[in-house]
């Protein structure tokens, strides 16, 4: 028995072309699915059409639909539920998922935890500056400013509580920073800032801020009060400077507790 090498080569080449074509079709389908999710403003957990329905809608085979869904699943845009009544649903998106994807690229770039922290020191002051600028321009929502000021005071009150857990302390600080960003929301800057913060916080969950002394906790929460006052006064330059000093001070405190952390390479989790 002999094999026609030319025919075998042509067959393999045709299969490669077919696979490439399927990948291109799948990418276009994946882009259309994301576009539709955005247009319909679908929230996490909302069901999407079945593979069969999508195949009919796009006029392609189910293999192309599966490949498109696989791409979106890897990115966290959708989830595939198994069993009866299962199928594709809108996934949990946001800073945490985006940050997890980002860590793959950071690991390949050999980024360290110090690099991540330095990014936070640059990004967080922008939020404070933008919030204060809104006040200065007269375009800030008074309720949003009041929420920032109130949270800064509540945070300080919580620090004085004897039974305040470490996690409650960390959560309190996170709420303040989130409220500052909410004064002048920007989906690009906010996603980037919150994702970088998630990367850092998730890798210091067993140490860092959880181990701050009461004096350090009090000092850092007093920073929040000063930042809130600068924002309320519409002083963008001071708000930015205070937030930068605050982030740098928190970093020093964390790296004093965990001196080896700074040079740890970011890992994909």
Question: How would you explain this protein's 3D organization?
Answer:
- There is one protein chain.
- The protein has helices at 5-40, 51-58, 62-74, 95-108, 113-137, 142-159, 166-183, 187-202, 214-232, 236-257; strands at 78-81, 87-90.
- The chain is mainly α and 269 residues long.
- Helix 5 packs antiparallel against helix 8 (187-202) and helix 9 (214-232) packs antiparallel against helix 10.
- The chain has ten helices and two strands; from the N terminus they run αααββααααααα.
- Residues 1-6 have low confidence and may be disordered.
- The chain starts with a helix and ends in a 12-residue tail after the last helix.
- The chain is elongated, with a radius of gyration of 25 Å.
- A two-stranded antiparallel sheet has the order 1-2.
Question: Short summary of the structure?
Answer:
This protein has 269 residues and is mainly α. It has helices at residues 5-40, 51-58, 62-74, 95-108, 113-137, 142-159, 166-183, 187-202, 214-232, 236-257, and strands spanning 78-81, 87-90.
Indicate the mean pLDDT.
87
Helix-strand pattern, N to C? Answer: HHHEEHHHHHHH
Alpha plus pi helix count: 10
Tell me which oligomeric state these chains represent: single chain
């Amino acid at each position: 028995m002999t094999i026609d090498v030319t025919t075998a080569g042509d067959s393999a080449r045709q299969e490669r072309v077919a696979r490439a074509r399927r990948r291109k079709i799948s990418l276009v389908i994946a882009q259309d699915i994301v576009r539709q999710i955005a247009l319909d403003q679908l929230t996490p957990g909302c069901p999407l059409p079945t593979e069969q329905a999508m195949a009919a809608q796009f006029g392609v085979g189910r293999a192309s639909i599966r490949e498109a869904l696989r791409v979106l699943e890897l990115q966290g845009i959708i989830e595939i539920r198994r069993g009866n009544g299962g199928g594709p649903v809108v996934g949990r998106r946001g800073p945490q998922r985006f940050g997890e994807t980002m860590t793959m690229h950071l690991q390949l770039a050999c980024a360290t935890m110090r690099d991540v922290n330095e990014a936070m020191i640059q990004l967080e002051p922008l939020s404070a500056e933008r919030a204060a600028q809104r006040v200065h321009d007269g375009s800030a929502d008074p309720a949003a400013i009041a929420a920032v000021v109130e949270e800064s005071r509540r945070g300080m009150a919580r620090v004085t509580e004897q039974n305040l857990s470490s996690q409650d302390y960390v959560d309190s600080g996170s709420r303040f920073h989130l409220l500052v960003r909410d004064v002048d929301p920007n989906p690009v800057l906010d996603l980037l800032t919150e994702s970088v913060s998630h990367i850092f916080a998730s890798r210091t969950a067993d140490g860092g801020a959880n181990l701050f002394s009461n004096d350090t906790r009090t000092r850092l929460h007093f920073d929040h009060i000063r930042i809130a006052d600068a924002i309320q006064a519409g002083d963008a330059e001071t708000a930015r400077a205070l937030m930068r000093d605050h982030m740098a001070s928190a970093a020093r405190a964390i790296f004093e507790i965990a001196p080896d952390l700074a040079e740890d390479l970011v890992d994909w989790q």
